[in-house]
Amino acid sequence: MKLIPIYRINTYVVPESLDRVIEGVLSVDGLIYGNYKNVAWHSNDGIEQFVPSENSVPTEGSIGERKQVTSFKIEFSIPRDKNLLSKVIEEGIYPNHPWDEPVVQVTEEYETRKHG
């Protein structure tokens, strides 16, 4: 067994943009986990809420009014490399995500590898 340092990345997206965001990430990194590639997880039917401020450019909702939308959580990991992390977020998530300010959460963790 090996412990591998990784970044765990979470983001939330409306269902109709799920595949676009995942494909955007995959265009930057193959999301390899051991002997597997394209390894990602997503939930179904969560509720995201927000209130757009005066400086926002909302895709959904109106400035100053609370909006709730169905969203999915996407979760995946990449090797702990800051340049790769920036590229995944700036080239994989941001241009493929419909929101003006996507929620992207990054934590430093370890994953196990049984083989290799």
Automatic annotation (TrEMBL):
InterPro entries: DUF34/NIF3_sf, N-reg_PII/ATP_PRibTrfase_C. SUPFAM superfamilies: NIF3 (NGG1p interacting factor 3)-like (SSF102705). This is Uncharacterized protein. It comes from Virgibacillus subterraneus.
